[in-house]
Amino acid sequence: MTALHLDPALVARARELAARAAQPVVDLAHRHTTVSVERAVLRLAGLTGTDPVTGEGRTEDRVPWVNRVVDAVRDQVGLESGVALPVWDALASGTSLQGLAEQVGAGTARFQIPTGAAADRAREAARDAVGTGIARIDANRRRREELVATHGDPPRRPWIYLIVATGDIHEDIPQAQAAARAGADVIAVIRSTGQSLLDYVPEGATRTGYAGTYATQENFRLMRAALDDVSAELGRYVRLTNYASGLCMPEIAVLAGLERLDMMLNDAMYGILFRDINPRRTFVDQRFSRMVHARAGIIINTGEDNYLTTADAVDEAHTVTVSQLLNETLAKEAGLEDWQLGLGHAFEIDPDREESFRLELAHALLARRLFPDAPLKWMPPTKHMTGDVFRGYLLDGFFNLAGALTGQGILLVGMMTEAVVTPWLSDRDLAVRNVRYVLNAAGNLAEDFAPPSGGFIDRRAHTVLTEAVELLGRIADHPEGLIQSIADGTFGITKRPPDGGKGLDGVVELGPDAYNPALELLEREVSRA
Amino acid sequence: MTALHLDPALVARARELAARAAQPVVDLAHRHTTVSVERAVLRLAGLTGTDPVTGEGRTEDRVPWVNRVVDAVRDQVGLESGVALPVWDALASGTSLQGLAEQVGAGTARFQIPTGAAADRAREAARDAVGTGIARIDANRRRREELVATHGDPPRRPWIYLIVATGDIHEDIPQAQAAARAGADVIAVIRSTGQSLLDYVPEGATRTGYAGTYATQENFRLMRAALDDVSAELGRYVRLTNYASGLCMPEIAVLAGLERLDMMLNDAMYGILFRDINPRRTFVDQRFSRMVHARAGIIINTGEDNYLTTADAVDEAHTVTVSQLLNETLAKEAGLEDWQLGLGHAFEIDPDREESFRLELAHALLARRLFPDAPLKWMPPTKHMTGDVFRGYLLDGFFNLAGALTGQGILLVGMMTEAVVTPWLSDRDLAVRNVRYVLNAAGNLAEDFAPPSGGFIDRRAHTVLTEAVELLGRIADHPEGLIQSIADGTFGITKRPPDGGKGLDGVVELGPDAYNPALELLEREVSRA
Amino acid sequence: MPDGSIVRPYGDTTGDGMVQTSFTLPVAAGPRAEGAALQLATKMGIEPAMVVHSHAIDAGYTFFVVYGSVKHLVDLDAVVVEERAYPLLSSSEINGAIRTGLNRKMVVLGACIGTDAHTVGIDAILNVKGFAGEKGLEYLREMAVTNLGAQVTVPELVAKARAARADAVLISQVVTQKDAHLRNTRELAAAFREAMGESRPLLVVGGPRFDPAMGGDLGVDKVFGRGTTPGEVASYLVHALVPQKESA
Amino acid sequence: MPDGSIVRPYGDTTGDGMVQTSFTLPVAAGPRAEGAALQLATKMGIEPAMVVHSHAIDAGYTFFVVYGSVKHLVDLDAVVVEERAYPLLSSSEINGAIRTGLNRKMVVLGACIGTDAHTVGIDAILNVKGFAGEKGLEYLREMAVTNLGAQVTVPELVAKARAARADAVLISQVVTQKDAHLRNTRELAAAFREAMGESRPLLVVGGPRFDPAMGGDLGVDKVFGRGTTPGEVASYLVHALVPQKESA
Ligand code: B12
Ligand code: B12
Ligand SMILES: Cc1ncc(COP(=O)(O)O)c(C=O)c1O
Ligand SMILES: Cc1ncc(COP(=O)(O)O)c(C=O)c1O
């Protein structure tokens, strides 16, 4: 395959600048906690269920006990020390976590920050409780490894990634199984629009989502079980993906680990840029969530593709590269390894533009060379898809070809109805046939693909890398680094000020005696990494 | 672009064997004439119109005067000397050719073979009469050159070739103009099914064809005029194509020259293999028709693509190469030059076959290298097209890409409805959009396409060439050469014995005093070539 | 999938009735054309219909892609299926049945009539090479098969059938423009009725665009469509020509 | 193209009525499914219908492609077109009209309501960057435009509109699954009626799946669809909010 070579000095410089640009964000994450991080701790300790007196009947509208407890703690003693100390201090009396939650519901629970020996006991008890959750995550990771060993991995790269999104878990399941039988290696269940703005994780098996299905622990469990069945049937381990980014990143990461999801959409900036979630909130949440993913052996998928839906894919190509480098830095700091980094990029150049296909190849090759050991996630055309479904089917074919020519790791299958509806059963089936044709007929064309150095593709790749390094330089030089550049609208031409957006009130600066048993247990992981 | 190199010795050997294999056919053509060749002579001399008392009302069913006259001559004095001598002898009395035809109609015409001075006079008169037809063909050739000079040629290769086939010339015209506006560089009007088996050329503007429109002089004229209008409108000379192969090859070639068609489907064997026309008849007819095309500056298109609709495109790939070499040899002998040789080949490999796309590239590259100066005609998938029009649209996109990657000269645009209906207006429009996308977005990908020597594509190309040379050897070694191999079912796995098929009775062995003024005038061309 | 006998098209939810359609209207692109497209979609039963794409073709035409939910219900019980009314036999069963039931070879003629030159289909049925892994009728010892090839005229065919005392005449029609295949088939049926009346051979026609249900109204005994295999045809011939008790 | 007011879809011959359609039925592949597909096509008015392709999806579903001629006629006279009832004005004409006609700035609020986070559409209309070469409303000196962005709740929006004394509220709805866009729009209209009655601002909604003809039944003043340009919107606002005589 191609000989595209990148200047190693330039590449090294890019990584060093990315690390510097991200440092302020890492420091910020170390100094703060959030309501969702604390709720995640309680979930790891096994607290589930919702307060029956809340919501409008539908379980998914009820407030989970983890929210009630964290809010109660916050009201009574604040969160500066985290929930673990006051909660396990309260449990010393012998009540169960569930029991305590019900007291909170009844308004009878009283919290205090223990000190001295009481604090030590609370810490220890909390560590044990959370340890059981971590143990379950570890068990799931081993279980995955066993299943992959028995059923086997997909026969070839790229892995075929398909989305289901009916809004109804009971429609999603047969469609996901059909997709797997049709050849999907990875199934993603997209969330109901706007779930990412809920400051709680709904519960139960849900049937009422819009353009997506609620991400709930029960939905995770049902779908994973259904995919385990087809995996056995097909003799190929079919992976399950969902979405972490949003106001509940840490909790969803925990649920993903507890229910053996295999991949998670987890981007350090997506929630900020595309859901207007407060930057500080997101940066604290993403670090915790990624530490959990690291432990769970989950592959993360980042969301650079989204930038190209609001910004021009050629003019802003370098911002994708910059974001990939930042996501990489932050992911590694949180303990993720190269094989877990499904860095995103997309085929979003205006198809009417001269040389559009070769420009796509140049961008895709750049990413491939820059992150040789990461399973890059290659996203299909969306922005320039129209109601002309014939044209759309053709574009998706060329997207598939670009994926094969440039050795992408995960191929999100494009739908001819992208501009029309959330995928139909038949759209998905036709889309997989498209992928199958391209990979069978032309999958090895990479052997004959050799962009000459100094040629169009080679020149374009170098231009983008150079622009990316320049931008990283500007970001790194700013005291607040990344946070400032986001405020300036660097990514997806969307401006997000540090104190704007949703969920800021859920961010708490940590006090001296702060204690988070989950972090403590997971840090080991990080230091191992 | 690619460095695929063919062994020059092997290539030279292939051409030499092709020439030897074709020699018996050339000799045969020199020793015979056919009713259609003789009718072509009368057409060149200006005889038109049909016998009003024939047919069932529809003009296209009426018997043309040229048929009536040639049949009358044959009945009275035979065709061994050709029609020129007896006809222009009869005209010595002063009657016009048209007048003589009416006498034939009335049964009052009397023919004899003149000798001595009378023969000389007849020859001279015939030469002058036929000369006017040739002069008109020459004028058309010059006119084309002028129009190309004013309007310009298509901006790039491959030329975009579109088919119209409504059966009604008055529906064809607006559709052809729409196609040209949509981007077509060449318009082909396919013929009504089975016209090629009529031993006469219908006359008039026709509206009653099946799956195609009758090829008549008037239809030629109307369409060429309509395309001249759009050419002016678009500032791009839009070429017109029709079909010569069939029982009336010589006459249709003459009409094409007289009405300034720009390309003609003309294959030395198509009529034999796919219309069960007698081999001798076809070989005599094709030579005369090609001499006329050579004079008219018309680009011929050969029909190797058809083999792959009845035979397997991989197993029989070498028969395409063999046929291309034979068509080349015969064409050159008839005076055609390299730039006039639109040798055919097609994208007909089963798409479900592993590596099918790269096999296509190998075959297409082989042809490109073997005939560097010929405007190869690249034909789309047909046999493996199904009613799944989405899949069809994708396959056509990859066909277009193969055309661009391998530098084809004329691209016959594939239709997603290939397996369903003759093209709709919208099919053609969508098909051109497909071509436009592929050429704009990936047209220059050839720069990055470099099949390594010893690689899959390189090895496949050499295998096919070697198999072709072996087959040519076997054909050349047989006394009757080509004629025998056709009887053996070498091409399109279709067996055609020398004396089988339609139209044999129209073949006549020439006598010592045979005279054909057209041949005489055209031979100059040949010797010039 | 629901097992009720009433179903609707399926987009992504049971019962949503979703369909895709595309067409061209001879109307210049613009709001009027969009409205016309919606009107047509509505008449087709698509409500609500979304015109998701349109573009001008030349000056006077507009191409549309429409998505939406059709109100129609599909009643599976009302579906008339040409269920195969005869067993699929193996080569040896077929040869056996003919030998014992007919005690002579079964004479079969095949051809493409009219100006249709598409022989690949009939060859697939008749030639030894066959189709979809099944060998063609010529491979059957007890059948005397003659493939007359393409572009055979109806009179020729009738004459040949009479001369050969054909038990069955198989014809192929692939070109369907202006319903040529239907017209040609009717013409064939009429000619045989005319010439041979009751004693006419079994008439079987096939081609990719035939609806197997239309045999009766075409005046032939059997119609085969898309993807027919030689085995189906041979089995049918035995069923139709060999006295029943034997072929059981 | 015929100039009569009755037209039919055009395949390759005027009046042939040809259309293409595809759909999935929750029926296992086979003759029964093919029959079901034909039945549906016939109910859609496609006669004769050709099932030119079908393939199984998973166990219980079959995908079909159908071609054929629809019997329906399209009556162009019956087409109700949302013909633009107002002139397209240039930026300076718009500014001029507002200055003279309103003698104050026109206050415009924009937002995506509900959980819809698709802002590209509303941004295309409002932001200076604009769409299809036309600058957005923010570029107009005489308009005071506030783009509230995405995921704004209806109550928030009503409050903001009242506080800003908005002349017009522009909202975008892109997600249409389960007709979310229609429901959200109705909810919005109701809320404004409720809160402000007659004095409510002009309500304008837009999105790729709206049918511009449906404004009335949604309870808003105007609906814009696919491919709307800022100029059209600005011109409409002037037409609707600036006393007529002036804007002429
Ligand atoms: C191969 C082919 C050709 C070859 C034919 C070679 C040959 N010796 O047969 C060539 C290149 C010569 C050719 C020429 C033309 N073709 Co053609 N051709 C095709 C093509 C690509 C494939 C057909 C085929 O072989 N299918 C494979 C066989 C196995 O399938 P099948 O025919 O359906 O047969 C199966 C069943 O139908 C059934 N069956 C068929 N016959 C019978 C008979 C019996 C008794 C039974 C029991 C069953 C049976 O069993 C078979 C096995 O399952 C089709 C497009 C397509 N992809 O379908 C166009 C197509 C059929 N051709 C078409 C046309 C118009 C032509 C031309 C007229 C074009 C022109 N004007 O030049 C010419 C002239 C032909 C003529 N005079 O009839 C059109 C027909 C349009 C229409 N529906 O009317 C098609 C659909 C292409 C198109 N979209 O325009 N063609
Ligand atoms: C870009 C995009 C996104 C971006 C949005 C970024 C952003 N800040 O806007 C991102 C990646 C974030 C995104 C996310 C999602 N998306 Co989205 N997205 C798209 C995409 C690719 C393009 C939309 C677009 O920008 N079009 C360009 C603009 C200019 O066109 P427009 O919106 O039609 O606007 C024009 C007109 O409609 C009109 N107009 C629009 N609004 C208004 C308002 C007024 C007042 C006026 C006058 C005119 C007007 O004027 C505009 C200019 O002409 C479409 C697919 C497609 N190709 O259409 C999917 C699509 C809209 N998304 C879809 C979905 C389902 C989602 C998700 C819910 C998926 C998920 N579950 O994760 C998420 C969540 C979003 C949410 N909560 O709402 C679906 C909607 C399906 C449906 N019909 O219900 C689509 C169709 C893709 C699909 N087939 O699944 N998406
Ligand atoms: C990285 C990332 N996270 C999450 C999501 C989905 O977020 P939401 O559920 O808010 O639509 C996406 C969708 O594109 C994404 O790219
Ligand atoms: C070389 C050649 N001649 C002629 C024709 C058309 O012949 P007919 O009119 O007999 O279909 C074709 C069609 O494929 C062809 O390839």
General description of the model:
The complex is a heterotetramer, with 2 copies of chain A (529 residues) and 2 copies of chain C (248 residues). Chain A is of the alpha/beta class. Chain A contains 19 helices and 11 strands. The longest helix of chain A is centred in the first third of the chain and has 36 residues. The radius of gyration of chain A is 23 Å and the shape is globular. The two termini of chain A are 32 Å apart. The model of chain A has no long low-confidence stretch (mean pLDDT 95). By secondary structure, chain C is α/β, with parallel strands linked by helices. Chain C has 8 helices and 10 strands. In chain C, the strands form 3 sheets. In chain C, strands 7-6-8-9-10 form a 5-stranded parallel beta sheet, with helices on both faces. Chains in contact: A-B, A-C, A-D, B-C, B-D, C-D. One pyridoxal-5'-phosphate binds next to helix 10 of chain A.
Strand order of the largest sheet of chain C: 7-6-8-9-10
Q: β content of chain C, as a range?
A: 15-25%
The whole-number mean of residue pLDDT values of chain C reads: 92
Mean pLDDT of chain A: 95
* Shape by Cα distribution of chain A: globular
Number of helices of chain C: 8
Strand neighbour order, sheet with most strands of chain A: 7-6-5-4-3-2-10-9-8
The most extensive interface between chains reads: C-D, 49 and 50 residues
Q: How many DSSP H or I helices of chain A?
A: 19
Element-level helix/strand string of chain C: EEHEEEHEHEHEHEHEHH
- The succession of helices and strands of chain A, N to C, reads HEHHHHHEHEHEHEHHEHHEEHEHEHHHEH
How far apart the termini of chain C lie comes to 37 Å
Quote the distance from N terminus to C terminus of chain A: 32 Å
Question: Over the alpha carbons, how many angstroms does the gyration radius of chain A reach?
Answer: 23 Å
Tertiary shape of chain C: elongated
Largest sheet of chain A: 9 strands, parallel
Count of β-strands of chain C: 10
Protein structure class of chain C: alpha/beta
Low-confidence stretches of chain C: none
What is the C-alpha radius of gyration of chain C, as a whole number of Å? Answer: 23 Å
The low-confidence parts of chain A are none
